[in-house]
Amino acid sequence: MRNVSILGSTGSVGRSSLAVVDAFSDALRVVGLAVGGNLELLAEQIERYRPEVVSVRNAADVEPLRERLRSHRPEIVSGAEGASAVATMSNVDAVIAAIVGAAGIPPVYAALKAGKRVGIANKEVLVAAGDVMTRAAREHGGEILPVDSEHNAVHQALRCGTHAEVQRIILTASGGPFLQRDLATFDDISIDAALAHPTWKMGNKISIDSATMMNKGLEVIEAHHLFSMPADRIDILIHPQSIVHSMVEYVDGSIVAQLSTTDMKFPIQYALLYPERVVAPFARLDLAKIRTLDFLSVDPQRFPAVELAYQACRTGGSMPAVLNAANEVAVERFLAGELPFTGIVEVVGRVLDRHAGAVAPIGSVEEALHHDAWARNEARGIDVAVRR
Ligand code: MG
């Protein structure tokens, strides 16, 4: 039996994680849950999974949550320390880290320092503080298993050869909803249009990141840290069906790919049960029905976010943390109607320019959060006119 804590249990990945626990209830048990909000759903999850410790982001939510509970009363904690407590409980074997944004950084770090396995779904943790996280894992016996579908695919494909035998990593990208849209109309893209992802059902932040393809740029940085691979050996290939989740090309010219349906339960079960493979009840891929898999290269004019992310990855140090934070704010502002769609990348680019002379190494979570806070502030102050 493996004991699991889920950080972000009411979000999309968190709910899929609980579905994986349901499917493997003789192998997995929930002992801790942490959430930002949605007390109603959290209360249901507590009654059903009976965790020992639960954390809510705001201390003010502790009492209202307690009042909702009937048959099971776990210990309830709050704030960043609360999430870290859930991630480091002595009986936890694996943590799923699915808290959106920089709030996920402290508990993941705490879990790795406590020697836990962490299934990372929150790519921002690796983008903003990748060096700190991989070092914590190395020094304290922690283990990072990627839950992001592309990196999970790479992790699987890398089991076919040694690191020295790898030529390059090929991350696939759906291309999002604007792969075919007339470039001249990009300033008029509405919030609803940007949220309508063609293949994956995801949260708002990641849906917008898929529409700009900043998501793929962040994934290049994530892959760089996870697999110790320089940016120039990580390529992106657009694959609109999202069936091939990523590939590894070896020096002998062989390419190994991982395929499955577009269901996060696959990477989650892999991260929780690795290195075992266990019979899964989830819907299988039927390639005869899909018939065609398409691939095309990325148009840098259509998706300028990708090059920004490559530049940040090559620069290293604090630049990726700044990229990530500026993007998070710019996406929020787009969703609030304060920026046009094209303004997202414009704001991020301008914040990167301002940071260019001040790039510093990141040696701690505090340093990562410092640059994160600086970039957020900058991104809030840059205005790009919205055409109405
Ligand atoms: Mg992904």
Structural class: alpha/beta
CATH topology annotation of the largest domain: Rossmann fold
CATH architecture of the largest domain: 3-Layer(aba) Sandwich
Give me the Rg, rounded.
Answer: 20 Å
Order of helices and strands: EHEHEHEHEHEHEHEHHHEEEHHHHHH
- Total DSSP helices: 16
Polypeptide structure, described:
The mean pLDDT is 96. It is globular, with a radius of gyration of 20 Å. The longest helix is centred in the middle third of the chain and has 18 residues, at 123-140. The strands form two sheets. It has a seven-stranded parallel β-sheet, with helices on both faces. It folds into two domains: 2-146, NAD(P)-binding Rossmann-like Domain (Rossmann fold); 152-262 and 287-315, no CATH class. Helix 5 (105-113) packs parallel to helix 6 (123-140), helix 10 packs parallel to helix 13 (304-315) and helix 14 crosses helix 16 (365-380). The protein has helices at 12-23, 39-49, 62-68, 79-88, 105-113, 123-140, 149-157, 191-195, 204-212, 214-227, 265-273, 287-290, 304-315, 319-335, 341-355, 365-380; strands spanning 2-7, 28-35, 53-56, 75-78, 94-97, 117-120, 143-146, 166-173, 234-238, 244-250, 255-259. The protein starts with a strand and ends in an 8-residue tail after the last helix. With 388 residues, the chain is of the alpha/beta class. The structure holds magnesium ion.
